[in-house]
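Dear support,

We are seeing what looks like truncated structure output for some complexes. This example has two components. We would appreciate it if you could run it in full and send us the complete token output so we can diff it against ours.
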Amino acid sequence: MNRNSNIYSILYASIMVILVAGVLAGVSLLLKDRQNANVEAEKMQSILKAANVETTRDEARKLYDEYFSETFVVNNQGEPITGIDAFKVNMSNEIKVQPNERKLPVYVFHGKEEGKKYVVPIYGAGMWGPIWGFLAIDENKSTIYGATFDHASETPGLGAEIATEWFQEQFKGKEIFDENGNFQSITLVKGGADASNKHGVDAVSGGTVTSRGLTETLRKCLGDYEQFLKSEKTE
Amino acid sequence: MSIFSANNMKLITNPLGRQNPITLQVLGICSALAVTSKVKPAFVMTLSVMAVLAFANVIVSLLRNTIPSRIRIIVQLVVVASLVILVDQVLKAYVYDVSKQLSVFVGLIITNCIIMGRLEAFALGNKPGPAFLDGIGNALGYGWILIVVAIVREFFGSGSLWGYKLIPESFYEAGYMDNGLMILPPMALFIVGIIIWVQRTKDKELIEE
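Here is the complete output from our reference environment:
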């Protein structure tokens, strides 16, 4: 057959593409389980980190099972929703539906000395892509016990600073509610938060859009949990 | 002709020195800047490029007499792109942390000029055996530069190698500080520049008129 004919080229390309598609689909199926296990372990590691438990990804599963024996799902009225595995809830889908239809997971941390903490996820938009994280909240349902954030593609050195230790440390001890029990969320303050500000932390210099995005994400996601956090407060 | 004949061995050794893809042909610079702030990702990147380049060379070489010349670039791209996706999937399954660090750069192996360059210049005109060696050779030539750059950057930028802290705490207490500039991409360009300089000083024939 003439190698320069159109028919030859078209046939060649078609056969090649079908073969390649088959191979890639096969490999993807083969490795899917392993890849998912990695993603799950990473999520467990983040949840543990929010509760100030540092761990490696290999040990995350064991420690997660140990500390987080209790998980549940609530709606934005703070009422429990049964029959759903909290760990399987994907926040990137939940933020797309109406607030009253959202399934909001709560991971309850039972520390030997630290006591009970509620870990909740946040998910929103940064500058270039999604940002997400977990906040651990004290048993009084207002004081932040620990926080961890991550991002898909924020600018290194600027917006990406939200994933660093110094930034996350600031959240410890901040309050979601003021003295009168009004919802305040946590705000990233440009130019630096005053030390007396119970509801603010320093924003990232040079990362204005990311900082605004995180403030907004915290306000919306913690806002969804407002009723849950207000319910049966144990001071 | 034996696979390890003198001619074939040149396919491996030439890209290490006189035909180095980075310092002489100045190809693949983008990833050389991006993945060399630590040794481990640089090493994994080298292995990934090696796998893609060697197999792409072999596959294109096997197909060289059947590829319609008018769509040959597309055929090469499909071969390279599928291999890259395979590598990416394997990394995600077995070395997840490294794959996160390399992030988009594994995908960008597709656009690494070294690969298309070798396919066009060598694999289309040679048998699979030599094409395989050419792929390995060029990946090694690319890799050793990457790793040298990464060693310098990680040692001076983070005080460690392969993640192990080498500079003792007492140094830091005495006032030593890691050089933050080493971590930033421009530093890779400086180090590559220094390697090019050293290489051309030692081998005068490489200096262009």
